[in-house]
Design goal:
Elements lengths: L9 H7 L9 H9 L8 H4 L14 H17 L2 H4 L4 H19 L4 H8 L5
Length: 123
């Protein structure tokens, strides 16, 4: 009554990958497990944003208040869809980019250098 059935070691067959211990579907399963999946990012995420670096600079009280006021005024000028894009950081980055561009082209004749030369050393 007891038949001598040879037990098949499925794990050994999978790991050894020998033809003698072939288990149907192993190759397909292996391909499925090891296939490389390419997930397409949405269009908005494809645009590379410049890296940002957190930093701290001290502003005079007047400049700080004017920056907040400018943010609110600019928000009122923009259509609703763009209002969320305005921030103090964006204003400062834009202003510095313009100032530094002028400084690169004009050097000592730039508004930046002239402002620094005539500025009160206490501010």
């Amino acid at each position: 009554m007891a038949e001598n059935k040879k037990k098949q070691d499925v794990l050994k067959a999978i790991l050894s990958d020998s033809e003698d211990n072939f288990v149907p579907g192993v190759k397909e399963l292996e391909k499925l497990i090891h296939r490389s999946v390419v997930i397409e990012k949405p269009e908005a995420e494809k645009k590379k944003r410049p890296k940002k670096r957190k930093t701290t600079y001290y502003l005079t009280e007047e400049i700080f208040e004017n920056l907040g006021d400018a943010k609110e005024i600019i928000r009122k000028m923009l259509p609703d869809i763009q209002k969320s894009k305005i921030s103090k950081t964006r204003i400062v980055n834009s202003a510095l980019k313009m100032i530094l561009k002028e400084f690169e082209s004009k050097g000592g004749d730039s508004t930046l250098v002239k402002q620094i030369q005539k500025r009160d050393p206490k501010s």
